[in-house]
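Students often ask what a 'structure token' actually looks like in practice. Rather than answer in the abstract, let us consider Quinolinate synthase, a protein of 309 residues. Its sequence is given first.
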Amino acid sequence: MTYIEKTTLDREALVEKILQLKKERNAVILAHNYQVKEVQDIADFTGDSLELARKAANQDADVIVFCGVDFMAETAAILSPEKTVLLPAADANCPMAEMITAGELRVLKERFPDAEVVCYVNTSAEVKAESDICCTSSNAVKVVESLDADQVIFVPDRNLGSYVARFTDKEIMPWEGFCFVHDRITPEDVKTARQLHPDAEVLVHPECRSEVVDLADYVYSTSGMIEHVFKSSSKEFIIGTEVGILHRMKKDCPDKLCYPLSSNAVCITMKRTDLQKVYKALETLTPEVTVPEDVADRARLAIQRMLDL
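Now compare that with the structural description of the same chain:
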């Protein structure tokens, strides 16, 4: 037996164990679009962070295994306080979410008392609790336009804030946070990719820098990218976000060719989850993610205000 054959058999056995434990625990497995392909393949649902948190809240399950990063599991715990939420990789953090704290946001609110606070879903529960409303990359413009205030404190992503500012007359005051995966994509990357694939459409995430957005054909959230590729009559696409999404695109749209805008667009914390950790989480019901009730109640208001839109 070759090493590859043995590895395949080991993986298949592990998958069987995971599926059996999932049944015994009455669990649902959620995987973000940026997860490694093996984890995506065993998930009940794949999607973006808020999409998955809403799925979790609507499932008749006792346990949610959230294969993503910390703020995503927190959001699921906020929306499903009666369920056990597990984050298989305890060290799977989001660097951008850590670029703003609740204390820093409180200082901003004191300096600009007439402003309303919009927090990107990529934030901690404590920051959500200090915010007026949450947003995602797909609804950020709609959220900002729904507000009465003329000044908007936008945390934590400066690039998404800059993108929103293109479509509103409100004064956007962005925090200087960023996603290191998207922020490192350059205009040169776009030009090189177009030279390699001249017939391909360029899709980028609004967490990219403005100069990259300017060169794109379309700007979408991860779910928006998948929907566009699925529905488009075009056959080739250059995808400007984390490379993990290409696996799902290949599965959902096998007749389309999707190329990474940058092979360096890899989120190392998203890749910390593997099959062994998913199995261990189901076996031990750890690491469990919980949010203090007072924080969760206030954060839920900001999330619900967005959902009500």
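One point worth highlighting: The chain has 15 helices and twelve strands. Ask yourself how you might have guessed this from the sequence alone, and why that guess would often be unreliable.
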